[in-house]
Amino acid sequence: MTYQLAHRRYTLPFRKPVRTAHGLWAERQGVIVRLEDEAGAIGYGEVAPISSFGTETLAEAEAALAALGDRIEPEWISQISPQLACTRHGLSEALVAAQALPAAPATGTDYLAVAALLPAGRAAIPAADEKAAAGFRDFKWKVGVGDIGDELSLLDDLLGKLPDGARLRLDANGAWDRRQAERWLDRCADRPIEYVEQPIAADVRGADDLLLGLAHDYPTPLALDESLVRDGDIDRWLDAGWPGIWIVKPTLLADPAVAIGKLAQRRMPVVFSSALETALGARTALQHAFTWPGEKRALGFGVWPLFVDRTFDGPAAAPFIRAEDLARLPSGETLWSALS
After folding, report:
1. What is the pairing mode between strands 111-118 and 299-302?
2. Cis bond upstream, residue 293 (ω within 30)
3. Is the pLDDT of residue 173 over 80?
């Protein structure tokens, strides 16, 4: 069957710029794709690359969509280059929706815990107070943004503000070199840190060996994030015997069901995380989280409200996301119309 293809770019300013080790991020850009079959069935998908993570660029995604033309066959999607994983993901998402294929059943979980996202620097301390009062017990702090000495000195202050039994994750976004990572991991060794996320950038020379060495040398678990941008990265790290946590952003994977299935088969510890996508991509990503058969860890989806235009937001940040919340998210048609 032939499908009619259309696509619209979005540029959505954030309510507040997102500050990470990659710099200040002021807006989210991506593409909503629309597929319509010969009988009039319609499906929508989201192409949401993050080139600073190692995905294709938005321009590359749009060029690939333009090259497909306005009519495509379903088998063309699987033939798109693995280097265009986000593009394949969005088209596959739209195809599944157009074909009205049933979602995988949930694994007996009605709700999942969510980690509160704390801002970089000293602003994390009052933010932690606010989030704890709202009921959060899992927290994620962006580090590697300011001076390392200042951040290390803030760690104990932040830990002291968290309620009893709370869990703190540190996300460096690959900001550290080996010596800086070792300095942080020395500090974390006798503190209640759940894990340290991506201490070394995925694209530095010898990154894989550095990450594996740090993971084996220190007691605090490490997590891969930017190192898991493409589906093939999961195969590579499985072969390498990665001993830590796997941060999975389904929106960035060409075929998340297959990649996540491999992790489930090996019983790997997985944390599902947002790619700061719109509600359309968030629904699909969260469906993967709710059908995950392994241990349920707090989700990295505590990011909304995120956009100035709240039409595009995923579920509002709360200590838990319920499965029924996904049905309340705006439809693909709603977002498509908002871009017209």
Report:
1. parallel
2. no
3. yes
Instruction: Tell whether the model's pLDDT for residue 107 goes beyond 70.
Output: no
Q: pTM higher than 0.85 for the full model?
A: yes
pLDDT at position 53: 87
d(CA 140, CA 302): 9
In a domain, 36, yes or no: yes
Question: Where would I find the beta strands (DSSP E) of 177-316?
Answer: 193-197, 222-224, 245-248, 270-272, 299-302
Residue among 16, 140, 142, 262 flagged as catalytic: 142
Mean of the pLDDT values across residues 168-181?
96
Tell me the CATH number at 169: 3.20.20.120
Entry field: residues in the chain: 340
Q: What is the pLDDT of residue 24?
A: 85
Q: Which two tokens stand for residue 255?
A: 């075929």
For residue 69 the two structure tokens come to 């033309």
Told to judge if 296 belongs to the known catalytic residues of this protein, a careful annotator would answer: no
Given the residues 140, 249, 262, 296, select the one marked as catalytic: 249
154 falls within a domain? yes
Could you list the residue range(s) of the whole structural domain that residue 33 is in? 3-98
- DSSP for 150-192 reads HHHHHHHHHHHHSPTT-EEEEE-TTBB-HHHHHHHHHHHTTS-
Question: Are 84 and 129 within one domain?
Answer: no
The model's pLDDT over 295-327, given as tens digits with 9 standing for 90+, comes to 999 999 999 999 999 999 999 999 999 999 999
User: Do 18 and 139 lie in a common domain?
Assistant: no
Q: What is the pLDDT of residues 206-217, one digit of tens each?
A: 999 999 999 999
- Looking at the structure, tell me whether residues 85 and 211 fall in a common domain: no
